[in-house]
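agent: user wants the full assembly modeled, not chains individually. Plan: 1) parse entity lines 2) check alphabet per entity 3) run joint structure prediction 4) return tokens. Steps 1-2 passed, two entities, 302 residues total. Proceeding.
--- entities ---
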Amino acid sequence: MNETVQPSFKPGDRVVVRKAWPLGHIRTPHYIRGQVGSIERLCGSFPMPEELAQQRSGLPAQPLYRVRFLQRDVWPDYRGGADDALEVEIFQHWLDPA
Amino acid sequence: MNDDHGRYQPLSYFQLMEVSLRELLVEKGILTEEQVHATVQDMRSRGAERGAAVVARAWVDPGFKARLLADGTKACQELGLDVPALRLIAVENTPAIHNMIVCTLCSCYPRMLLGLPPEWYKSRPYRSRAVREPRAVLAEFGLALPDHVQVRVHDSTADMRYVVLPMRPAGTDGWSEERLAGIVTRDCMIGVAVPRAAGAAPRP
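--- prediction returned ---
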């Protein structure tokens, strides 16, 4: 059974979140689209939420990562420490190498 | 539950959908009203005790703490907390890092460990401001963090659930696990508060 897409990123890899605005049930928050971060960990693989919401199987399952972003990259006027970070769960099909 | 003070309020779209679906399920014999009621009662009665027990165990047992940070779900199973839907990530506060949990998309929350989320957790102001100006939000909760402490906000957007493992406060040496669990509040495990030993001076 090959119902899982192979992970293409490893911890530390720099990635950019796709800047796309498709309709439907999307688990990638708007504010993080187009931002560059680094892979913190692979969480496992899960059925695609966009497909599940349409009552389809969501298979093959997509690798899900936790991606770490620096707050000052995401919000240019961020007030706080330079190392302050945001970690967001993002599916592989929403990520490209940066 | 709502603030209508007994005044008549028409059902909202989702309330109407809930009633319709529930009545259909009962009518077709899939569920009984008693089962629905019992489940709602069970969810409402659940508090943050289970989460507090997990934190207290991690404080007294370094091996358990290591396993909790490596795989939160498996570690909870050791304590008999087994819910297949819960994929838990525990994030550890240290003198250099403070963690805070939010779900900007809806209200994902480790209900199994912490019970039902508080209203503010589901509110738009918390959900939008926690990722945008976490330090200002923490300050409003009474937690002013010095600049040298890194603030890490975890946006719970997909299949994982998060719990903050707070730092064990000074002045709790020799405390039993049960007594330790008593100072671990829900807010400490969301990351908008830190546990304090009763009677000890508040930490900065």
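agent: reporting back. Chain A has one domain: 14-97. The longest strand of chain A covers residues 36-46.
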